[in-house]
Write a structure and sequence with these properties.
Helix content is 32%, strand content 39%. The protein has 195 residues and is α+β, with helices and mostly antiparallel strands. It has a domain of 113 residues: START domain (Alpha-D-Glucose-1,6-Bisphosphate, Chain A, domain 4, 2-Layer Sandwich).
């Protein structure tokens, strides 16, 4: 009888958590994630797309606030600007992975790439670090007459760890999804001036 009660309680808790999770998911903006193959590599890019309810003028300053990535980016333990001119910078980052068992670090060149007057693109590329590859791209596009922003984020990390490449491809996809969710939360919490 105790075993039956325990199983029933666990199933009930699981169903309740599923309902709560579904309710939260309906309130949040949907995130589309996908893996994109990289030519010459077995490790794919992770890509996530989300549409935020804030205009690009509120989203872009957070994307280029490199020193504060540690405040909201998933698993970042350090983000330090080593040199900066405008939106171009050399930054140092540390990211904790494998539940804190491994710290990945790197110096990155990060800069806005001109696209158009409305679309903003920020790219990060590895200069040196304890990973074989690190690249990330933020692509911000105004939508709905400029009142909202579509965020397309791509990331590809090859951590030089002897595990199957499918694990890293899947983790790149998950990291992309977590990153756009973190940006969504950060944009919502940062006060914005009204114009």
């Amino acid at each position: 009888m105790n075993r039956t009660f325990l199983i029933g309680a666990l199933v009930g808790a699981w169903i309740a958590s599923a309902v709560t999770t579904d309710a939260r998911a309906e309130e949040a903006q949907p995130v589309l994630t996908v893996q994109i193959p990289e030519e010459g590599s077995n490790i794919a890019w992770g890509q996530a797309v989300i549409e935020l309810d804030q205009p690009i003028e509120e989203v872009f300053p957070i994307v280029v606030d490199y020193a504060n990535y540690v405040q909201f980016m998933p698993n970042f333990t350090k983000s330090r600007v080593l040199a900066q001119r405008g939106n171009r910078a050399r930054i140092y980052i540390e990211v904790s992975v494998a539940k804190g068992a491994i710290t990945l670090w790197g110096q990155l060149n990060i800069a806005e790439r001109p696209e158009s007057e409305q679309v903003r693109i920020v790219e990060a590329k590895l200069l040196e670090g304890n990973v074989d590859a690190f690249s990330a791209v933020w692509h911000l596009t105004p939508i709905d007459g400029g009142t909202r922003t579509r965020v397309n984020f791509r990331i590809r990390v090859d951590p030089d760890i002897p595990l199957p490449s499918s694990i890293f491809s899947r983790e790149n996809e998950r990291a992309a999804g977590r990153t756009v969710r973190a940006l969504q939360a950060r944009v919502a919490e940062v006060p914005h001036s009204s114009t």
